[in-house]
Design a protein that fits this description.
Distance between the termini: 30 Å
Low-confidence stretches: 1-17, 259-263
Mean pLDDT: 83
CATH superfamily: NAD(P)-binding Rossmann-like Domain
Shape: globular
CATH architecture: 3-Layer(aba) Sandwich
Helix content: 25-40%
CATH class: Alpha Beta
Structural class: alpha/beta
CATH topology: Rossmann fold
Strand content: 15-25%
Radius of gyration: 19 Å
């Protein structure tokens, strides 16, 4: 009994100590990002949000305690590492869907790099590489990244062929960034949701790496999963918390448990 109490106190102390430092977040003003920041703030967890539009961010988070807004850019390596100094982990929700224009040839600079800094090459790939580098410089050992369901498919899969052609190789650059994360040596969780909708499901099913499309999931459902990657807690379907460490996890919502095994099914609507 004494040993159990001692271990419990130690885990509580470790938990509270871990979150004395803020969590670094990109993509905080997105629909999912806003829910994540609000949920963490409601638990008294500090966040440091990298934002580009300060007015919009202030409108969203101005009344929340422990939310620190920092204007910056994931492509600016000279300031990114400084901004991330003192953070406990990195949650990366940034991304871009840039429509391809077959009538306009993609422009390259003198170094044979794409000129458009809003291209997925920069936002989804180079930006993530910069964050990984800044994590290592600041001894931040955990990263959580949200990409998408299609990154599980081969480049020749019809879905990937279609979306890469329509959206500037968006999936291709997400896949490249996932490879960098898994080989970085950092502790990681990569979440692959399907279609993210403004609806909520009663349950969320978590499976390794891939699931069948469209794998729809609610905005709030996904935000709950992201929070659970850093604040694991038991749910009524499992005796132990779902382990997200060093995993790529596909997730989708359900309104019924019919046909689902208990493992990996989370009751997250009111989590």
């Amino acid at each position: 009994m004494l040993r159990y109490i001692a271990l419990s106190l130690l885990s509580v102390f470790s938990f509270s100590f871990s979150f004395e430092k803020p969590i670094f977040i990109t993509g905080a003003t997105s629909k999912v990002g806003r829910r994540v920041v609000e949920k963490l703030a409601s638990k008294g967890i500090k966040t440091r949000c990298l934002i580009r539009n300060y007015t919009k961010a202030e409108e969203y988070f101005g009344n929340l305690d422990d939310v620190h807004l920092v204007k910056g850019d994931i492509l600016d390596t000279s300031t990114l590492s400084h901004i991330m100094t003192g953070c406990s982990m990195s949650i990366n929700l940034h991304g871009v869907y840039r429509k391809s224009n077959p009538l306009h040839k993609l422009k390259f600079d003198l170094h044979n790099k794409i000129e458009d800094k809003n291209h997925p090459y920069y936002v989804n790939y180079i930006g993530t590489k910069n964050i990984i580098s800044a994590c290592k410089q600041n001894n931040i050992d955990k990263i959580v990244r949200v990409t998408g369901l299609a990154t599980a498919f081969s480049d020749s899969h019809p879905i990937n062929l279609l979306f890469n052609s329509l959206y500037s190789d968006n999936i291709f650059w997400h896949k490249k960034s996932e490879n960098d994360i898994t080989s970085s040596g950092l502790s990681y969780t990569i979440l692959r949701p399907g279609a993210i909708k403004e609806i909520e499901y009663e349950y969320v099913n978590l499976v390794p790496e891939r699931t069948k499309p469209p794998a729809t999931i609610g905005v709030d459902n996904l935000a709950n999963v992201i929070v659970q990657t850093i604040l694991p807690s038991r749910n009524k379907f499992e005796d132990e918390p779902y382990s997200f460490k060093n995993k790529i996890v596909a997730c989708k919502g359900y309104n019924t448990r019919k046909g689902l095994v208990k493992k990996g099914v989370l009751s997250l609507l009111h989590h």
